Amino acid sequence: MSDTSEPTPFPTTGRLLGVDFGTKRVGFAVSSMDQKYSSPLIVWQRQSEQGDARFLKKLVAEHEIVGLVVGLPVHMSGDEGGVAAQARAYGDWMAATVNLPVCYWDERFTTASAEVLLYSSDMNAKQRKEKIDKLAAHLMLQSFLDTDDRNQAPASFPVKE
After folding, report:
1. What is the count of structural domains for the chain?
2. 96 assigned to some structural domain
3. For residue 106, what are the domain limits?
4. DSSP single-letter state for residue 78
């Protein structure tokens, strides 16, 4: 007997957690309950898998998260490289750890945009480094929230040049 049920659509209400993956640090942002706005949340210095799992479970519980949106670092061509594969693996691990749905979203230019915003502020290099990952997560999550039909949109939008 085959399973012909439709996949569960990604949640359209409740808070989402935006994730800017990094091998050393992970930036997080959170959406509003109505999924209209995103706010930078925190930068997590990665530890052991157990330490990361404890932190993630606490974050999800505290903010009543209903879904994960993980930034996918794709090339300008739209192709995924090694870092995108790592981001997918981390996102899959996160989803399994907290038992939540995950969506992968094109994060091209989010870190560069975050850098531009932070350079125009009065922060020194150390302050910028502490904030860049959560700001990148915020920009990526807001891009996801601003998309008209998020359940139909692919995780990345290949650019044909």
Report:
1. 1
2. yes
3. 15-146
4. S
Residue 36 has pLDDT above 90, yes or no: yes
For residues 158, 28, 117, 79, the Cα torsion angle rounded to the nearest 10 degrees is: -20
pTM above 0.90, yes or no: no
Pairing type for strands 65-72 and 38-45 reads unpaired
DSSP 87-140: HHHHHHHHHHHHT--EEEEE-TTHHHHHHHHHHTTT--HHHHHHHHHHHHHHHH
Sequence-distant (6+) residues with CB within 8 A of 45 are 24, 25
Instruction: Summarize pLDDT for 3-20 with one digit per residue, the tens.
Output: 555 556 788 899 999 999
Tens-place pLDDT, residues 141-158: 998 998 876 655 444 333
Strand partners, 18: 29, 69
CATH number at residue 133: 3.30.420.140
- List strands edge to edge, sheet with 15-20: 38-45, 25-31, 15-20, 65-72, 102-106
Look at residue 22 and give its three-state secondary structure: coil
How far is 142 from 103, CA to CA, in rounded Å?
A: 14
Residue 159 domain flag: no
Burial (Cβ within 10 Å: 0-12, 13-18, ≥19) of residue 75: middle
